[in-house]
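Hey, I'm writing a tutorial for new members on how sequence and structure tokens pair up, and I'd like a real worked example in the thread rather than a made-up one. If someone can provide the structure for the chain below, I'll link this post from the tutorial.
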Amino acid sequence: MLYTEVPSYYTWNSKNKSFELRKQGKSGDGKPTIFKYTTIGRIYTIQPNKHEFFFLRLLLVNVPGPTSFDYVRTVSGTIYDTYRIAFQALSLLENDQQWDNCINDACETSILSQICALFGIILSTCSPSVPTE
């Protein structure tokens, strides 16, 4: 189950501070004791410049059955140091190849000041995934 699907099957019990299975709705997944209710859950918006929070949120909506923060950062048995790197390992994030190609083309046809300006534009507006490489 994805993080965004939890409200369909569970409700929050504020007294016990825990999730409980829904007691009404449609019978879900072919099991008569599990109910699914059409509901809108809430997951907060995160600004892309808050990198780790942003990629954690993206992983939560793409990785089924998250049980811990380490689990979310684990891809093919490897626990990655950051959420961004885990997101890249899942091939859910574009790589920087298009920016590398753009700079290489500019190096063949442009003067240094134009290349520097292009690099600044890429850094400030295009959000390269690994700007230091």
